[in-house]
Amino acid sequence: MPGTVLLLAASPLGRSCVVDAAGVLPVLAAVAPSVLAGTDTANVVELADPLDPQAVLTRLRAAAAAPGPLTLYVTGQLQLDRRQRLPHLALARTTPATVRYTALPWHWVREELRLRPAGATALFVDLHTDAETWQYLAGHPLDSGRDNAVYGRIAPPSGRRGLAEPSYMKAVATLLRSGHRPPSEQLHQQAVARLGDEAATNILLGARAAHSGDPHAAISAAVRAGRYAEADALAGRWEQTAARAHGPASEDALHWAEVRADLAMFAGDAAGSCRAWLTVAGTRLGAGQPVDAPAVEAAVDRAHHQWGRIEDPARARELGPVLAQLRLRVPGRREGALENVQQHLRQLQTQ
Predict the structure, then answer these.
(1) 23 partner at 20 to 30 Å CA-CA among 96, 172, 220, 266?
(2) 338/332 Cα distance (integer angstroms)
(3) Can you tell me the distance from the alpha carbon of 130 to that of 94, in angstroms, rounded to the nearest whole number?
(4) What confidence tens digit (pLDDT) does each residue in 1-54 have?
C-alpha cells in the first residue's frame, strides 16, 4: 500500500524567527519518496513557510485520511498563545501577539491523527523554542497522541545571534539520501548521534507508538473496509464502558463520543456527526470546561463544519438553532463564525 509523506517547514518572517526551518526542505525533497515513507511507493506533500493555519489543517487532514503508513517531517518553532498558553507551530505571518490566529495549534496535529491505527503514523520533528515556551515544555510534555510514534528533538533558545540550524532534521535528511531507510527508532538514534554536544541541551523524543489489542486499530480497519455500522457499534461499546467506569463527562467517555462523531462523518452522515459534536461540546461545557478550551472549540468547530454539509434543509433547520446558541458562547478562532450560522439559518428558513 502506498505511503503518504507530509513535509512541513515553517517559521515567522521578521524578528520573531529563531530557526531557518525552510532551509531543510531542499535536502528532504531530494530524498526519494519511497525512502521518506519507508514504503514501495509514496505520495509527498510539501508545505514551505505556509501562511494560513486553516490551509495547513486541510493538508494535514487529507494526509491523515489517506490509507497506508503516514510519515510527517515537521521543522519549525513553537510559541505559546497569550490567551490559553498552549503551544503552536509558528507560521510565516505569526508574531508574538497573533499566535492564536496565525499559528497552527499543536493540538490540531494530535486531533487529526487520533483515529489512525496504532503503528501507522510516525512524526519526525525538529522544533525550536523561545525562553517562555521552553519553560512551559519543562512541565508540559508535547502531546502528539497516544498511538503515534514521535521522534526528534525540541531545542532551547540558542542564546546566539542569528538563526538556529535545524541540524536534527538535516541529519535525518542526509541519512535518508543514502537511499536506505533504517527503522524509525534507529534513524532517530543515528540523527541524534550526529548532533554531538548539542543533544545534551535538547528535549529528545523517541517514544514508540502503542500496539496489541488497541480498539482504535479494529475501528480503523472497519472504516477502511466501509463497515461503518460495525465501527460505530465497537466505539459505542467502549463509550458505554468508559461512561460506566468514569462518568459520561470523563475524558475517556468523551474520547469515544468524539470517535463516533468522526465515524458518522466518514459514513457521510453529516447530520449525525453534527449532532454528536454538539452533544460533546455541551457535555464539556456542562462539566465546567472553559469556552476557549481546545477540546470545546474543536467540538463546536467540527459541529459547524458538519452542519454546513447537511443536504436536508429540515435537518439543518433542526440543528441550526442549537449550533447558534453554542456559537454565542464559543465564538472560536475564525472571525464571523456566528454570523455565518445566522446567515445560513435565515437562508434555510426561506426554503
Answers:
(1) 96
(2) 9
(3) 14
(4) 789 999 999 999 888 898 989 889 999 999 999 999 998 899 999 999 999 999
pLDDT value, residue 216: 77
Report the C-alpha gap between 307 and 55 in whole angstroms. 20
> Does the pLDDT at position 207 exceed 50?
yes
In this prediction, residues 116-142 reach a mean pLDDT of 88
Give the residue extent of every domain in the chain: 3-207, 215-350
CATH of domain 3-207: 3.40.50.1460
pLDDT digits (tens, 9 = 90+) for 146-204: 778 899 999 998 777 788 889 999 999 999 998 888 888 889 989 998 988 888 888 88
- The fold for domain 215-350 equals 1.25.40
